[in-house]
């Protein structure tokens, strides 16, 4: 097999395409000839040495892929050789041959391309879980989505459209506003020219929002908490503020880490606000939860209510360019890697 290896901690130049023996499926596994693999911010953080769950270097990252089944384990039922599937490997997805437990594989709808299928699982699962399992949004809520033009951001806005009566706010740089509006955002805010908290207070008559989906971290968690309406919730699911393009910069990490707010249960009680955290990698063992959420997402996609957006599909040999694009923040939606 051919795979993208992170050879050591550092910049995009640490990525190499290497060959090794094809893996053999276990009794409950399927083996997939991969046609596309998703790229996520966790992959960038792993390369920089900032993702504690990543396997030791050298390693193959990748939580999602799509392709065609070419082998079945002896105990696998419900799949067949030649079937198109998308899958959730627990690392190792950025390879052209992947073995994954059958419980983590799903048939690809006929209308969905391999590239779009590989772009769907992680971001839509994350967004769905936050909106409907953790927060349980309902009509009348006001929802703020940071990094609204990214993979999770655009997925969250599309899922918000499925709930009547939600009002959504999204932060994005000015050149991305048209795209964010296309995803269903009611109020798009250029965080570079406006104070998004002041703008939202103005738009909500000072009340604030019921839910914030925050992948920024640091000072923005404090800013977001103060922006919550009574009984509001902030969900942290990333720390993009810690990222610096290219190599790790320890002084920047320390500076951002020092800005993380600290809240006691007594303060949360007194403020009638809540904070939740989401790390989908730590839910990998929750098969029923993951399958239920992704099946709901696939049903919504088949009904035409979701539109997966792929910004770029780059060959494995250009993995470094894919990482640079994701780090730059210039992408709209997802980036996928194609063998």
Secondary structural class: alpha/beta
Would you count the extended β strands for me? 16
Give the termini separation: 10 Å
- The figure for the number of domains is 2
The dominant shape is globular
**Helicity, as a percent range:** 25-40%
Which H/E pattern describes the elements? EEEHEEEEEHHEHEHEHEHEHHEHEHE
Q: What's the CATH H-level superfamily name of the largest domain?
A: NAD(P)-binding Rossmann-like Domain
Number of helices: 11
Low-confidence stretches: none
> What fraction strand?
25-35%
Kindly provide the name of the CATH class of the largest domain.
Alpha Beta
Give the C-alpha Rg.
20 Å
| Architecture (CATH level 2) name of the largest domain | 3-Layer(aba) Sandwich
Main beta sheet: 7 strands, mixed
Mean pLDDT: 94
Under CATH, the topology of the largest domain is which? Rossmann fold
Task: Summarize the structure in words.
The protein folds into two domains: 2-120 and 309-338, Quinone Oxidoreductase, Chain A, domain 1, CATH 3.90.180; 123-281, Rossmann fold, CATH 3.40.50. Helices cover 29% and strands 25% of the residues. The protein is built from eleven helices and 16 strands. Helix 3 (121-134) crosses helix 10. The N and C termini lie close together (10 Å).
Task: Give the helix/strand layout.
Blueprint: E1 2-6, E2 15-19, E3 29-39, H1 41-47, E4 59-60, E5 65-72, E6 84-87, E7 97-101, E8 105-107, H2 114-119, H3 121-134, E9 142-145, H4 151-160, E10 167-171, H5 177-182, E11 187-189, H6 196-203, E12 209-214, H7 219-226, E13 228-236, H8 250-257, H9 265-271, E14 274-277, H10 287-302, E15 310-315, H11 319-328, E16 334-338
Parallel strand pairs: 9-10, 9-12, 10-11, 12-13, 13-14, 15-16
Antiparallel strand pairs: 1-2, 1-4, 3-5, 3-7, 3-16, 5-6, 6-8
Helix pairs in contact: 3-4, 3-10
